[in-house]
Amino acid sequence: IASANDACVAMAEKLFGSEQAFVDKMNEKASELGMDNTIFTNCTGLPSPGQYSCAKDVSTMFYNLLQHKDYYKFSTIWTDVVKHPNDRITEISNTNKLIRFYQGCDSGKTGYTSEAGHCLAASAERNGMRLISVVISASNSKERFFDVSSMFNFGFANFTNKLIIDKEKPISLDVKINGGKKEQLEVVCQDSVYLFCKKNQKRSVEFSFEKPSK
Asked: CA gyration radius for the chain?
């Protein structure tokens, strides 16, 4: 909900013993994800010699974060209260204003440094289609929210996820069984299959079925 660079360092030290060891793991993971234009030298993202990234790599990193469903329990919170031992409270609000003001936006993270400018990585979902937008080096906070919203608007207006195979419905293909209790079985997909394409665009799709070796 709110940035806490001290918490980043504390987590790094707890998990790997030191921030440097954690950073080494960050770079290893970035390489695995194909983030070829990113190097981490600290765990906070604050300016540091030799550290750099780009919008494409941030989108890759953010996409992989979105695969962890527990993340949405926190990313969708608009406001919260931190209670201190002396009964003092601190009210905090989500720095990603699109959570509240853009339909379908359920995740994202803002950032700012004098070198990087105003940045935002955010994601929104409508009608089963999820989009990710990343803006770096905006001149002010309003500009980053406007630019991300504009990209979302363009994506939702011009593209769609067409449902090709529904995992809840059998495929029109029967598999014959030799020596089984049934002569044939229905085939279903483990997951639904979608085709991302422009709206009103006709695409031909072919499916092949390979029988398991065992």
From this structure: 23
